[in-house]
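Case 379 in the screening queue. Each case pairs one protein sequence with one candidate compound; here the compound is magnesium ion. For every case the pipeline is the same: read the inputs, emit a complex structure as tokens, and attach any notable structural observations.

Predict complex for case 379.
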Amino acid sequence: MVSKQDVLATLATVKSPDGTPLTGTAKLSEVVVSDGKVFFSITVDAAVVPQWEPVRKAAEAAVRALPGVKSALVALTGERTAGAARAAPPQAARSAPPGAHAHAPRGERPVQGPPGVAAIVAVASGKGGVGKSTTAINLALGLRDLGLKVGVLDADIYGPSVPKLLAIRGRPETLGGNRLRPMTGYGLTVMSIGFLVAEDTPMIWRGPMVMSALTQMLREVEWGTLDVMIVDMPPGTGDAQLTMAQQVPLAGAVIVSTPQDLALIDARRGVEMFKRVNVPVLGVIENMSYFVCPKCGERHDIFGHGGARQEADKLGVPFLGEVPLHMAIRETSDSGRPVVATDPDGPHARVYREIAGRVRDQLKVSGAGRAAPKIVIEA
Ligand SMILES: Nc1ncnc2c1ncn2[C@@H]1O[C@H](COP(=O)(O)OP(=O)(O)OP(=O)(O)O)[C@@H](O)[C@H]1O
Ligand SMILES: [Mg+2]
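Case 379 output:
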């Protein structure tokens, strides 16, 4: 049987981008070895995530090649410093002149939402890579399963991932004038900048352009009648995020966090950001909360589970639920077959539906009231 020491010895041969052994970088989480399955995470600054993806892959491959290893799951998490521009297109961050963020004057009125949409809910996180987009999509599908008509707006202008997560290709059809017909996938009505801009186009967006892209996706898309629109927000709590939170007419926000302490500091910032712009925080979801060994059923808290629930209590916001770290969630998510849609009777779909139920209860929307949507937010 492979031991933790074997795994660490192998990881010492994997080089980080600057050439130091991975084990010497203090970026490794605890390594869990359970019945031949190996799990750990690597946490790096969000700006260097692209450089670290090959390291993650190399670490996974090296561990997998060890005799006695049945599978290896290595998560790469990006820590984002507050106010930092999105890491995905570094050119964008560099080319934007200082102060180019869209600074909405305080108290500026939000862009008017699409007329047929009863409630717009942001899914946000303080930092990147915590599973926000995965959660947003599966939450949307969970709400769909509860009988609601659901839309997804990908507000991650720099790094849109919704087209990939839902395996939707092609371009939206133009209707009369400037209007666009949204795309559809798994029963969801979907819009993303990813449908409009080629994947390899360097997106040199400045704050005001980001806002106009967002405004267009809200106002110039035929969303039709929706009970809930889930907005996959860009990571972070900088000016750009604040502006979005301020300008999109949000009924509420859901914060996704991993259980790590730092993630929680970020989660707290996320909660604060929405409070600042008077958007009710519907609650916190703890993602990659724990890991259940598929073989022995034993539960491992590789990120130190439970922090998000305590943090939610402290902040006085609801705790919406825990999503385990699971290979199936990652594989389905990354291959455009979200787990709630492709394994609706499985344990993960159940977790997401429970969370969706709590979100729905807070919004007090019901599919039945679709003709005359009326939203009441609990204090
Ligand atoms: N519960 C989970 N179990 C296993 N893997 C997960 C889980 N949640 C997310 N992942 C994986 O983690 C990676 C990051 O997830 P995702 O893209 O949803 O994060 P994000 O917060 O939206 O990132 P970004 O900040 O780049 O927008 C993906 O490979 C995804 O499949
Ligand atoms: Mg994302």
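Case 379 observations:
- The longest helix spans residues 347-363.
- The pocket of adenosine-5'-triphosphate (ligand 1) is lined by residues 125, 128-134, 156, 159, 161, 235, 287-288, 323, 325-326, 329-330, 333-334 (CB under 6 Å).
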